[in-house]
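Lab notebook, bench 4. Continuing the backlog of folding jobs that were queued last week. Each job is logged with the same field layout so the records can be merged later without manual cleanup. Today's entry covers Acyl-CoA synthetase, a 515-residue chain. Filled in by technician R.K.

JOB TYPE: sequence-to-structure
TARGET: Acyl-CoA synthetase
LENGTH: 515
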Amino acid sequence: MHPSIHAKTNPDRPAIIMAGSGETVTFAELDRRSNQVAQLLRSRGIKIGDTVAICMENHPWFFCLTWGFQRSGVHYVGISSRLTPPEIAYILEDSGAKILFGSAYLAPTLDEVAKLAPVEQLRFDTPGPMSAEDALAAMPDTPIADERAGVDMLYSSGTTGRPKGVKIPLPEDPAIDQANSLVGLVLMAFGIKPDAVYLTPAPLYHAAPLRWSMTVQKIGGTVVVMEKFDPEAALAAIEKYKITDSQFVPTHFVRMLKLPEDVRKKYDTSTMKCAIHAAAPCPVPVKQAMIEWWGPVIYEYYAGTEGNGFTFVTSQEWLTKPGTVGKALTGIIRVCDENGDEVPRGTEGQIFFEPTEGMVPFEYHNDPAKTADARNKHGWSSLGDVGYQDEDGYLFLTDRKSFMIISGGVNIYPQEIENLLVTHPKVADAAVIGAPDPEMGEKVVAVIQPLDMAQAGEALADEIREYLSGQLSRVKMPRQIDFREQLPRELTGKLYKRLLRDEYKAAYEAAQAGA
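JOB STATUS: finished
OUTPUT FIELD FOLLOWS
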């Protein structure tokens, strides 16, 4: 299973379709382009085991690059196109990347990166000496002599601190067409077939869009790439391309559900057989509404870039246990107390996975302390999430441990409050954080992105408090509600709470200093 095989057996089948422009790359063209990428790396002295990087928007060449990297035996780093120049430069330096592929779209940012990190850059849609197209056109489109399977090296989103690279060894089997665990999950658990037409609405540098899309191409399916997510455009793409499979995050669901009913009913989504979601806990009412709309085709999993475990749940199972993220398919779930000891079923604690046979251990690149901190005394590893297992072994997430608010000695998890807030008809997005408070230690603050910013104000704040009052205990009620036109949320759905917490902490300290 590999695009190079499909290039021989089904050369004219689309491997990539850009949803907005309709630009198409067939499997034959993907094979030729990825060979040119591999040849270019070797011409630049990049060897097996070296590291390369890509920082660009969802672009027709994105997968041509990653498949070229995959057949070159390198570690390839996907860098968020929304990071600042110092953040990109940090990842380049930390990863040891020897070349960076970008595009004209990010030219101002990448120009600044060039001043900070002495790494060769090649850019698409850019004339002159940095032209990636010119450099690649000069390369043969035949396989390199030393083809060997490479692997991604992705960085955490940095929502709670500086991002860290998750590095796993190159595959033991050097064959580029080897199967892996994700292929098994795609085919068996999710039922995605080789003739799939798979919609990816999220940025391709992120773990899930990158790995799942490449797996669909590995088995022979077509990947339809949205240049940028828009709720109505996603529905239009499903109808236009007869999408059979897709992957979303809960914020995508929320935005689609907030569309007027006549807009939602305008598009045919009946071709959808499997709509996967992950990345963050999905509010129960949101998922119930999606199942009512699209039918029992919503599948959920819980996992991380680290690959230390994987849970799975179908729509039918979820409806019997609303809120669950499923049972483990890889790894053994262990919910532990502060001492690292397993707690009884139904008791909340930090979620760990015990590795099972064949699982590859991860490490955080250049950070042995963080690697050690992710494991407990038993050698089980954690992503830092908190939750519990019920008596049947189904896992429920509460929140991230690092997001917990301690107010007056009471532990409060923001996710529960956020899940309620986004169901309010006038709320587009919400973040709940703990801000410093002289009396309680921390107070609960809700930062709201309203559907209509013109409605922001005390009247809407009172309406939201009234909405929450019958559903939350008093200790969990936000003591402060603020409004923003936009929350600092990654396009992958991750919320940069660290930025909000730092902002409120700085404001508190400034007020205290001026008092």
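OBSERVATION: The two ends are 67 Å apart (CA to CA).
SIGNED: R.K.
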